[in-house]
TrEMBL record:
<dbReference type="InterPro" id="IPR029209">
    <property type="entry name" value="DML1/Misato_tubulin"/>
</dbReference>
<dbReference type="InterPro" id="IPR049942">
    <property type="entry name" value="DML1/Misato"/>
</dbReference>
<dbReference type="Pfam" id="PF14881">
    <property type="entry name" value="Tubulin_3"/>
</dbReference>
<dbReference type="GO" id="GO:0005739">
    <property type="term" value="C:mitochondrion"/>
</dbReference>
<dbReference type="InterPro" id="IPR019605">
    <property type="entry name" value="Misato_II_tubulin-like"/>
</dbReference>
<feature type="domain" description="Misato Segment II tubulin-like">
    <location>
        <begin position="2"/>
        <end position="117"/>
    </location>
</feature>
<protein>
    <submittedName>
        <fullName>Tubulin domain-domain-containing protein</fullName>
    </submittedName>
</protein>
<keyword id="KW-0496">Mitochondrion</keyword>
<dbReference type="Pfam" id="PF10644">
    <property type="entry name" value="Misat_Tub_SegII"/>
</dbReference>
<dbReference type="InterPro" id="IPR036525">
    <property type="entry name" value="Tubulin/FtsZ_GTPase_sf"/>
</dbReference>
<comment type="function">
    <text>Involved in the partitioning of the mitochondrial organelle and mitochondrial DNA (mtDNA) inheritance.</text>
</comment>
<comment type="similarity">
    <text>Belongs to the misato family.</text>
</comment>
<feature type="domain" description="DML1/Misato tubulin">
    <location>
        <begin position="123"/>
        <end position="306"/>
    </location>
</feature>
<dbReference type="GO" id="GO:0007005">
    <property type="term" value="P:mitochondrion organization"/>
</dbReference>
Length: 519
């Protein structure tokens, strides 16, 4: 069946994961005369039995967040809850005095969730009403999917969950007490007939990077041959220089520990100044930023969950996708870019026809030499044409739109004269659905007009491109330069060596690096 288990580590990752699962839920078909969905739900969803002995279908996911991070979402939801007395769970006999129960005040459920619970038409979501990722969640999860870490509070000013070491120590503490893989992960893994891999959404610039690093190490020890695809979330917003440096150091530790053990690592973030004019999002809202990222992540991984995944070639399985990019053994970091196509470019009012299909990066390949807000001038690739090792492109558009997209894209897909790069492409008419939990971040000229349908049936023509290329070298050198200045000598050499090996992996076979003036 080739199942995929998802790990969501941290509040930022759970925003992305919620959009992802809402989209997967929209692919289910319930009408008896409806055509079967092209998506194989068994890959990401698990069958089960609810409290009423009815069949359930819940995501194969583990959701980790800090105390207060789940908002109004219940651990035991309507699929599994049973009526219990007010005194349930209180032992009697050893204590004959009265008991007083103190409960923290519950987070109020917003109107959108109340209408979902009552099976009424969904209330409109407004930016001010989305306080947590659970506020726009449309999916029921298995009770064992949600794991709250009570050792830290969300957004605590006294003890913020910010440093890599804090996350690493927390994982090790919990693992000693509970064996997290045995308590949390193994239930989902043992239900799989033939697990094809694990996808991980995690913050990369804070303590969740340390938590994720230890989790990946434990997974690799236990499941040595399983593909692991890691999405490392970063925030490209400008903050104080001290905070920028802390983020970069955390990121360096995250890369040093995760990249050698994962099958493929994709840095992910929203570079607001680099976004095209047809995108209008509020950079202060995780609901907005994660929505944009979710379109790219869901699209580029679409072939791994389709019923006809055998026709997707090397894009149809996580392991095959990772081996495509890492053909030479040293390219485990990929860049992600996306285009939201104009279904009628000749009538666009916002973009000239020639610029209607503008591609934008959601990773490090953003142009220029600025990384995470820290201006650097790394040496090594200036004066060299970018070398591309592999490209995996997924195009979701109607037949007519695909013809136009491919005509304009083919000429510039690979640098002229370069025939050694690996290129894989998957084409489908299965466009991206815009559902009621998705914010209005795209201009109306990007929405595919669908006649005689409700607003929730609107769709997008999208193409994504995962690329391994030498363009990651300046970003790695920017991180390396920061580490060499601020990390203590005890750990500095190990991180610099790891980052140096990553850089060499992207230089091998085309650039010896002998001209570099690197440290």
């Amino acid at each position: 069946m080739h199942e995929i288990i998802t790990l969501q580590l941290g509040h930022q990752a759970n925003y992305l994961g919620t959009h992802f699962w809402n989209t997967q839920e929209s692919y289910f078909t319930y009408a008896e005369d409806a055509s079967p969905s092209p998506v194989d739900h068994n890959i990401h969803f698990r069958p089960g039995i609810g409290a009423d002995a009815g069949e359930t279908f819940t995501p194969r996911t583990l959701i980790y967040d800090l105390k207060g991070g789940f908002g109004s979402m219940k651990k035991i939801n309507a699929l599994y809850e049973m009526e219990q007395g007010s005194d349930a769970g209180i032992p009697q006999g050893l204590w004959d005095k009265g008991t007083t129960i103190h409960r923290e005040p519950l987070v109020e459920t917003i109107e959108y969730q109340r209408t979902l619970d009552a099976a009424l038409p969904s209330a409109r979501l407004e930016p001010a009403s989305v306080r947590y990722w659970s506020d726009f969640n449309k999916v029921f999860y298995h009770p064992r999917s949600s794991i709250q870490l009570n050792q830290y509070d969300l957004s605590s000013k006294i003890m913020p969950f910010e440093s890599f070491d804090m996350g690493r120590d927390l994982f090790n503490q919990l693992n000693r007490e509970h064996d997290l893989l045995d308590r949390d992960f193994r239930l989902f893994a043992e239900e799989c007939d033939q697990m094809q891999g694990v996808q991980i959404f995690t913050s990369a610039e804070d303590a969740w990077g340390g938590f994720a690093a230890e989790y990946v190490a434990a997974l690799r020890d236990e499941y040595s041959k399983t593909g692991i695809m890691t999405w490392g979330l970063q925030d490209f917003e400008r903050v104080s220089r001290e905070k920028q440096i802390n983020h970069t150091v955390n990121l360096a530790y995250t890369l040093s520990n995760i990249v050698p053990l994962t099958s493929l690592y994709v840095p992910l973030g929203c570079p607001q100044p680099k976004l095209p004019g047809y995108i209008n999002l509020d950079p202060a809202l995780q609901w907005h930023k994660s929505a944009l990222l979710s379109v790219a992540v869901e699209t580029c991984t679409l072939p791994t969950r389709l019923r006809d995944s055998f026709s997707a070639g090397r894009l149809g399985k996580l392991d095959d996708l990772a081996s495509l990019f890492n053909a030479n053994g040293g390219q485990k970091i990929a860049s992600l870019s996306m285009t939201v196509h104009n279904p009628n470019p000749s009538t666009s009012k916002l973009c000239k026809p020639s610029a209607s299909d503008e591609e934008f990066g959601l990773s490090w390949d953003l142009g220029g030499n600025e990384f995470n807000g820290i201006a650097e001038r790394p040496q090594g690739v200036q004066g060299h044409e970018s070398h591309i090792f592999a490209i995996a492109k997924v195009v979701r558009a109607s037949n007519d739109d695909r013809a136009r997209i491919l005509v304009t894209a083919d000429a510039s897909e690979l640098p002229s004269g370069r025939h050694d790069a690996i290129f894989e492409r998957y084409l489908t008419s299965f466009t991206y659905p815009i559902i009621d939990s998705f914010p209005s971040i795209f201009s109306t000229d990007r929405i595919i007009p669908v006649e005689d349908t409700a607003a929730e049936d609107q769709r997008l023509a999208v193409s994504t491109k995962l690329t391994t290329s030498s363009q990651v070298i300046p970003r790695l050198k920017s991180i390396k330069n920061v580490v060499s200045r601020v990390v203590g000598v005890d750990e500095r050499e190990a991180i610099l060596n790891d980052l140096g090996e990553f850089i060499e992996g992207f230089e091998t076979g085309w650039n010896s690096g002998s001209d570099d003036n690197d440290d």
